[in-house]
Design brief:
Elements (H helix, E strand, L loop, with lengths): L3 E5 L5 E4 L4 H12 L3 H12 L5 H10 L4 H10 L2 E3 L7
Antiparallel strand pairs: 1-2, 1-3
Helix pairs in contact: 2-4
Length: 89
C-alpha cells in the first residue's frame, strides 16, 4: 500500500492519500482546491510557458503518461510540495 502526503505550502495543512497513481492524486488535489482541469491547464501553461489543454492533460492522466516534471508543475501551481521520506527497515 502506498501513501502520498500533499502539504499546502501556505497553510501547512496536509492531505493524506492512499491513492497510488497520478490520475487519482491530481483529482484529489483539484477537488481539494475546488479547481477544474481547464483551470489547471491554464495555470500550468502560465507557469511553464508550454501549452497545456484540458484534453491533453486528461489523456495523459488516463494513460498514466504524466511526467514527474509535469507533476512538479502541478504541485507548484497548486502550492503543494512533494515529500520523500525514507522508510524504516
Amino acid at each position: 500500500m502506498s501513501f502520498v502526503l500533499f502539504v499546502n505550502k501556505k497553510t501547512n495543512k496536509y492531505n493524506l492519500s492512499m491513492q497510488i497513481n497520478s490520475k487519482n492524486q491530481v483529482k484529489i488535489l483539484l477537488t481539494y482546491e475546488g479547481l477544474k482541469l481547464k483551470e489547471l491547464a491554464a495555470l500550468m501553461t502560465e507557469k511553464s510557458g508550454k501549452k497545456y489543454t484540458p484534453d491533453g492533460l486528461s489523456h495523459k492522466l488516463a494513460r498514466g503518461r504524466l511526467t514527474y516534471d509535469e507533476m512538479l508543475i502541478i504541485t507548484d501551481v497548486l502550492n503543494y510540495n512533494i515529500t520523500f521520506t525514507k522508510l524504516e527497515n
